[in-house]
Amino acid sequence: MSESAVLEVSAELKTLGDKIAELTLKQAKELSDYLKDAHGIEAAAGGAVMMAPAATGAAPVAEQTEFDVILTSFGDKKLDVVKVVKNLTGASLMDAKKLVESVPAKIKEGVEKAEAAKIKAELEAAGGSVEVK
């Protein structure tokens, strides 16, 4: 086990930090609102005011293995994109057209990373804009 660096803080800050860590969710929200209203202090975007302590020996987060391919725009070559969607999905020409016109639309769900990259490349080559999530 490796030794971790110890951050030295004053007793006053340690006491304050311990009190904050013991707040209930409701109290933390009230504190957040007070700091915002009274002092103009806000949490960073996407950040949380507090984080739960990490469990020791926690398992690493598994890497994502399934991806969704989402058409976000068909660009100025709609017909080319419709043809590619038809071939990828096996849908009729009319259904592929409806799918393309309903962007953002999931073209494929739960595919492997390599297949998602291939589908994305095909759709982008036809003129579409694609996201892989």
CATH superfamily of the largest domain: Ribosomal protein L7/L12, C-terminal domain/Adaptor protein ClpS
Instruction: Give the biggest beta sheet.
Output: 3 strands, antiparallel
Distance between the termini: 37 Å
Could you list the spans in which at least 5 consecutive residues all have pLDDT below 50? 46-52
Q: Which tags fit this structure?
A:
alpha+beta; Ribosomal Protein L30, Chain: A; 2 domains; three-stranded antiparallel sheet; 5 helices; elongated
Explain the layout of strands and helices.
Blueprint: H1 11-21, H2 25-39, E1 67-73, H3 78-89, H4 93-101, E2 105-111, H5 113-125, E3 129-132
Helix pairs in contact: 3-4, 3-5
